Amino acid sequence: EKAGFDHFMMKEIHDQPKAYRDTMGARLDPSGSKVVLDEMNMSEEQIRAIRNVHIIACGTAYHAGLVGKSIIEKLARIPVEVDVASEYRYREPIINKDTLVIVVSQSGETADTLAALREAKRNGAAVLAITNVVGSSVAREADHVIVTWAGPEIAVASTKAYTSQLIAFYLFGLQLAQTLGTQDAGFIANVIAEMKLLPEKVEQILAQADSIKGWAEQVAAHDNLFFIGRGLDYAVALEGSLKLKEISYIHSEAYAAGELKHGTLALIEDDVPVIALGTQEDLLEKTISNIKEVKARGAHVFGVQSEGQTELAKAVDGVFTIPRTLTLLTPALSVIPLQLLSYYASLARGNDVDKPRNLAKSVTVE
Ligand code: F6R
Question: Where is the active site (predicted)?
C-alpha cells in the first residue's frame, strides 16, 4: 500500500501530481478559460455579498490559509484575515452576515476548527469548508464545500493535503475573480493554463529528489536552523519549518526575511543552516540582501530559486531550482523540496517518519 516507497510520507509526496490533477479535475472548463465550481453551491448573489473573508485552520492547513489569503486578496481584492482556530474562537472576532468564513481541514474532524465553524455560523456568517474527507463533520456542517481530491493521507506529516488545499484556494480565488470581474478573462485563462502545467512541474522536482539528501544530512547534524523568505515565500517557509520540526525533531524557525535584523540575527553564528526561499521575483533583490546579512555572520545558506534566475545562486552555498511558473503559483512547487528536506532529515536522524512522537493524525481534543 506504500506503492513501493519505504514510508507513506514519501508515497504521498509522490502522489502530488495526481492530487493536483484530481483536485483541478472537472473544475476547469474544457475551453480552458473558466473555473466551474457549481458543486460549491454558492450563488452569484452570495459571492457578490462577501465583504470580508476569515480563514480558520490549524497547523499545516493554517499555513495553506496564509497562501489562500494572498490568493483571494490578489485575485478578488477582498480583505482576508487568517487565524489559528484555537485562537479565533476566543478573540471575539468581528463576524457578520457579509463575512465568509473558510475553514480548512484535511480530516474535517479537528476539534478547534469545528468549534470555530460553529461559532461563525452562530454569528450569521456563511461557511465554506475546504476538506479532504467527504462526509466529515466539517463538510456536513458547512454551507459550502470544496473537496480536495488528495486521497487518503496516512503519514502524520501532511504533504499532499496541503498542496491540494492550495489548489482549492486557486480555484476559489479564480471563481471569485470571474464572478466579480476583478480580473479580465485573458488573465484568468493564463492562470488556468499555468495551473494545468503544475503536475508535470512537480514531477520534474520529484525527479531531482536525491539532490536534497545532501542538504538534509547537513541539516540533520544541527539542532537549530532558520527558514527565511518574503511574501509567499514566507508562507511556504512557515510550512517547511513545521514539517521539519514535526518529523526530524530539529528546532527551526521561519522568519520573514526582512524581520531578521529585529532580533533573530543574534542567533546566527558560524555554520547555522539557513534555508532561503527566493522564488518571488519582485522581492528577490531584498531577499538576497537578507541572505548576505546571514552569510556575513557565518550561516550556511541553502537557496530555492525559480528556473531562469541567476542572482540567488551566487549568494548561497547550495541551490535547488524549481521550474518556472506564475509568481502566485510558486507555493505549489517551492514547498516540495522542503517536504523532501524534512523527510530525508528525519531518516538521517533515524526517526519514525510516518509516526512522529507525541503527534496524532487527527486532533479531536481542544
Ligand atoms: C502537520 C499536520 C497538522 C495538521 C493539523 C490540522 O503536518 O498534519 O498540523 O495540519 O492538525 O489537521 P486537519 O487539516 O485535519 O484539520
Answer: 361
DSSP state of 258: G
Model confidence, pTM: 0.98
Beta strand spans in 140-250 (E):
144-147, 224-229
Does this complex have an ipTM over 0.85?
A: yes
Cα 158 to ligand 1 centre (Å): 6
> Which atom of ligand 1 has the smallest separation from the CA of 138?
16
Which residue's alpha carbon is nearest to atom 16 within ligand 1?
A: 105
**Ligand 1, atom nearest to 107 Cα:** 15
Cβ atoms of 240 and 335 closer than 8 Å: yes
Q: How far is the CA of 236 from the centre of ligand 1 (A)?
A: 15
- Is 286 considered catalytic here? no
Name the residue type at position 212: I
Taking the centre of ligand 1 as the mean of its atom positions, its distance from the CA of residue 314, in whole angstroms, is 36
- 106 C-beta closer than 6 A to ligand 1: yes
